[in-house]
Structure formats: C-alpha cells, structure tokens
Amino acid sequence: MDSIENSKLLKLEAHLRSRIRGQDHVLPRIISLLKRGQLGLTKLNRPRGSFLFLGPTGVGKTETTIAFTDFIFGEDKLFRFDMSEYQTQESLGVLLGGKLGERGTLALACDRSRCGTLLFDEIEKAHTRVLDIFLQILDAARVTMANGETLDLSGFYIVFTTNIGGADLLNLQHSTFATMERHVLARAQQAMRPELFARITEKLVFNRLGYDHQLEIAQLLLNGELKFLREKGYELHPDKTVLPFVVQRGFHPKLGARPMRDAVEKLIGDAVAADLLAEGVSRGKLILNEMENAFTVVHPNGDH
Ligand SMILES: Nc1ncnc2c1ncn2[C@@H]1O[C@H](COP(=O)(O)OP(=O)(O)O)[C@@H](O)[C@H]1O
Ligand SMILES: [Mg+2]
pTM for the complete prediction? Predict the structure, then answer.
C-alpha cells in the first residue's frame, strides 16, 4: 500500500460522516475494520473484513456499504445479492452456476472485479445451503463452483444485512439504544446459525432516525438535487418550508428514509417543470417553497 492510498484512508472517516447521518455509534467500528482490511492486517485467506448490519429498514445500512465501497474501490465495485431471490434449493445453482457452462452470480461478480464488496441483503431469507456457502466464504474466502472452479474472494469485504429484530426496534420506542441493541443482537443470534453469527467480525445495530437526522438526510438529498439543477442553469433557493415538507413526504416509520430520494426528485421536478412551462427559461435567484402540499417556484422580482 503506497502513501497515496494511506492518505486516502485517513479521509475515509470524513467521507462516511459526510454521507451517513445518525449512525455515529457504528461508524468508528466500521472504519477501524476497513483500515485494518486495507492495510493487510486482517487474517490471510479470509475476506478483508466481514460485517453484519442490523436494525430497522431505511436507516442507512446499504447507504453505508455503498459509501465505503465507492470511496475505497471506486464505483461499480459493490455486488449485491438479494437473498429473497435465494430461498429455494435451486437458488444454489443460481449462485454457483451449473456443472456445464452457465456461470453463477458469484462467479460473474468475480469476473468483473478481484476486489470490492459483496453485499448479501436479508440473509434470514436465504436457503440453508446458501448459508453453507457463507460459512466457506468467511472461513477461507474460497468457494467452489458447480463446475469445479474455485473463486478467491480474499479481496472482498462481506456485508450481510438482516431485518431480524428490526421491527422490534420500532416497538421498543421508549427504551435506551443500549437496551434495543442488546435485544436485536440476541434475537439475531437465536435466529441465525450460531457458527455463522460467530464468524462475522463486526455485528452492528443501526439506530432509528430521529427527526433531526431525518432533516439532515433531507438536506443532503436536497443539496444533490439543487446541484443537479444548478448544472442545468437553474438556481433554486429553498425557503424554510421546504425541509420539513420533504421529511413529511419522504420519511415513513416502517420504511425509514427510503422514500426520501424519490420524494425530493418528484417534488422539485414537478415545481421546476411547472415553472418552465409557465415562464420559459428562468434566470436569477428563484425561491422554492411549499404551498398547499406542493412545491412552487417563486420569482422574487417578478422577472424571468
Ligand atoms: N443514516 C442515513 N444517512 C444518510 N442517508 C440515509 C440514511 N439512512 C437512509 N438514508 C437514505 O435513505 C435511502 C435508503 O437507505 P438504505 O441505506 O438503503 O436503507 P437500509 O438501512 O434499509 O439498507 C438511502 O439511499 C439514503 O438516501
Ligand atoms: Mg438495505
């Protein structure tokens, strides 16, 4: 690892903190394992590091995985496997390929890259034979495909996510986070195969998002959208009605912040489209505000 790589690694924390809100309790442990993984300090013939992310839906588990993978490896190095598609015995063939020809989804990922992150979402849904494969991956970073070929996964981080206990978190509204964390970890340990649970290096419970963090996430997504429009020559300044309305439309108790990005794009897109159709090309400072459950674009000087 050269010094450029080292100085980049020192910026990992700032990068994750700029993208992920309300999960400050898990970031240090994620960063610590990633640093050790990148510096070659984790065990030989194992994946670079393994994580189990627990907690409610839409609170940043996938977003965190995308953020660190992009930062460390660059884009398109995250390979995602939705375990709801691997619930049957036959799904083993999808993962590991056929005896003759036909490559499995794991081999296809390895064909594209020797390093990156393998994300296995909702592992509680995977067939037990698929879980056996996870044990091989965690133990030896090697998987034998149906055609006899062996894949070397030692260049990858492995992230598992599970919803086990996540719904309980929403019901334990009034408990401290430490209590909820203990509860979710205990539930996961019971529900998962113990040997699988034991082999995962970092098991981290993500927290529900409080209102302040919901606002911060709305701000992040809003900034992205405003930047996109600015590059198209459209300068919008949201007033104070905008953020709370984005949260009202984009945050859902059961889905977390999942609907937020679409809400931002649709609300602002509709307002801009209406303005362009009415006014033609708009220049100068335009104000975005919320009125009667929609965003509108206001021309402060009446000019356009
Ligand atoms: N803690 C967070 N910080 C920043 N953005 C978040 C956070 N949680 C959720 N989001 C937003 O919500 C979307 C869905 O979150 P995601 O990470 O996919 O949820 P999950 O925890 O179910 O994997 C993300 O794409 C991101 O825009
Ligand atoms: Mg997810």
Answer: 0.94
